[in-house]
Task: structure prediction
Amino acid sequence: MRLSNYFMPTLKETPTEAQIVSHRLMLRAGMVRQASAGIYSWLPLGLRVLRKIEQIVREEQDRAGAQEVLMPTIQSADLWRESGRYDDYGKEMLRIVDRHNRDMLYGPTNEELITEIFRNSVKSYRDLPKNLYHIQWKFRDEVRPRFGVMRGREFLMKDAYSFDLDYDSAKTSYNKMFVAYLRTYARMGLKAIPMAADTGPIGGDLSHEFIILADTGESAIFCHNDYLESDVLAKDADYGGDLQAIVDSWTKLYAATDEKHDQAAFEAEVPEDKRVERRGIEVGHIFYFGDKYSKPLGAEVVTPDGKQAPVLMGSYGIGVSRLVGGIIEASHDENGIIWPESVAPYKVGLINLRAGDADCVNACDGAYASLNAAGVEVLYDDRDLGAGAKFAGMDLIGLPWQLVIGPRGLKNGVVELKNRKSGEREELTLNAAINKLAG
Amino acid sequence: MRLSNYFMPTLKETPTEAQIVSHRLMLRAGMVRQASAGIYSWLPLGLRVLRKIEQIVREEQDRAGAQEVLMPTIQSADLWRESGRYDDYGKEMLRIVDRHNRDMLYGPTNEELITEIFRNSVKSYRDLPKNLYHIQWKFRDEVRPRFGVMRGREFLMKDAYSFDLDYDSAKTSYNKMFVAYLRTYARMGLKAIPMAADTGPIGGDLSHEFIILADTGESAIFCHNDYLESDVLAKDADYGGDLQAIVDSWTKLYAATDEKHDQAAFEAEVPEDKRVERRGIEVGHIFYFGDKYSKPLGAEVVTPDGKQAPVLMGSYGIGVSRLVGGIIEASHDENGIIWPESVAPYKVGLINLRAGDADCVNACDGAYASLNAAGVEVLYDDRDLGAGAKFAGMDLIGLPWQLVIGPRGLKNGVVELKNRKSGEREELTLNAAINKLAG
Result:
């Protein structure tokens, strides 16, 4: 994409309404615009990141055996009356009355609807286990929406729901999602640590929040330092096999948010030099809740011995739009965003240092064509602007690589390749640069 | 995907609530389930089709130079008051009051919001032309939702908005979308004919509906038979060049829906043996409306001579979820759906005729692995069911190819390959079948 044509309305000023760095940078980089309080429009650059995150989530859900569906945003209130949550949910639920005076709502989550789909379709234990997920916009009418897409009202969430006949099978389903979540965040360049979370009246220990470390995080977190140094993807997951060992390795050491933190246990279990106290952002939550919804909604299957039993369910959420902000919180510097390559809107920013110079234009146009032909995503700054503005703009939007082509270098047969994260610059021939980026 | 594990709840009975064939077939094939009146959940098989259609729309929008954004579903009523449409829109608009008593609405369309984004970001004619589109769920509170996804309340629409400085440039933008629409529908195996549509108070001739022929269509249509025989994709589009000749070739002959039909003109312009009178379904609408929104909303740019002028806009809609039904209306037989390959949920249905037979299982498992490795999308009926049920099920869901492997054929070293559309069956070796499908 050529910047001369791209709709990327960057801002020079720091927007005053933005309290945290990811919100400021997303506005400044032209990734999003607020439509109304806590509701955002995604502009081209931001949408590309959102879609890449969504796709990683999708691939890892699919790999773990979950199947994608898509439930609507608007639901009937009747189902929520069946589960008893219509009255409980409070003001965060956006309630709507349609033209026929039926009570509707904008789904803040989908336990009821997926349970209804299940109960109408699946009748036998032979069709279990199942895990159905969707990636859909949700609405929670937060009283004070803030932090940009990190705590918006309309947000994109992946929510999966597992259905099993018995607890052991449900635990296997839970473990698959546990491991899928580790892989999902790792692929985004994030270190997300599972931390025990509330199970409410369900009890047991099958509830974990996945927390990434960031100074601007909403919760204090306490954990064993080994978790910060463990590599996730090295452990290849066989979803057909037993995943308990992986889950155990990520749950045996101390890790808790302030909600569940126990200072005495922390000090007893973790040697002093291994104690980490930081701040964190929740980017996912997995939760086993048994027959909490299947029972009131009557989602039963025939068991092997011919009886009827409510299915046992779990739910598994990932805040897809929130992750865009979360990744920026975890990965930026004073000049702007630093995208991990897997979620970067483009891999390469190509900078023409002198837009009026025929040699520069030729070299840049050629590099742009070669990189595109090699399947490398390039954002090409072909505008007639000063070098300083171009450098600052590229640093701001944080593409992993900057390929800088100017008249002086061309005379010596070289271009400059800069790594946004390390800041390292390298002079090399244009061909060598293209080969390196396409490799 | 193995059917033994797939969430595809097909129905044996024909659902009584479904009045038209696409609705019946989508329910029977387990593609969708109604969540509430006019609101559907997309199950895995249906979602795959929806996503393929969406992706074709996206690719052709991108090719034509439009840039993808994503606006939220929930909008503030204030903008619609600025444009004057808040009171005009009537009961089809789903109106919402949030917890702070602010008037909100579920966007039925996005002229206001995109105009606001534009006015806050673009200030100069130098940044024109622009075309921004998004593919997002909309809500129209139809008084009588019916025909399944063809006339639902919550529906997925692609809407693009062009911004130009003057009429000539706006017409160029219009022509690009006109041609992009021809290509889009052609890629889905549809013959969509552009028909002049109302321009309302704007006047001029820049308003076309794209109509596909189907016996169950909502409108009567009248057109010159040559349009049914013209090939669209043969004319390769150069979006940087002049597209007027292509547009002219698709507008010079008579084509009108009953709304705009003029029987005298039809008879005068079209020889009797070329007159086509059929029924049709609207699957897209493109419309130039000048400064209708930019003026009241103050979306102005600086012109080359230093003045301020409202931008001239057009909008371009495609009913993405409606197309799923529309394609089925246009392509089915008494046994079920006949998917064009470009939008088929899977390319191949692999049928194991004897699930208990080791040779059959081996051959089928091998074929499944080979086809997957070759990137061919396969739905594998590995269930322990009779041949009749498997054949009927595959015909119902309408995958383009059926690869049938049974004990008798294997003894002779052959399998059967059936083309769903033509019904032709061919006996060949398994390797030859795989090569043919992977080619």
About this structure: The domain at 21-337 of chain B is CATH 3.30.930.10 (BirA Bifunctional Protein; domain 2). Chain B touches chain A through 52 residues (CB under 8 Å).
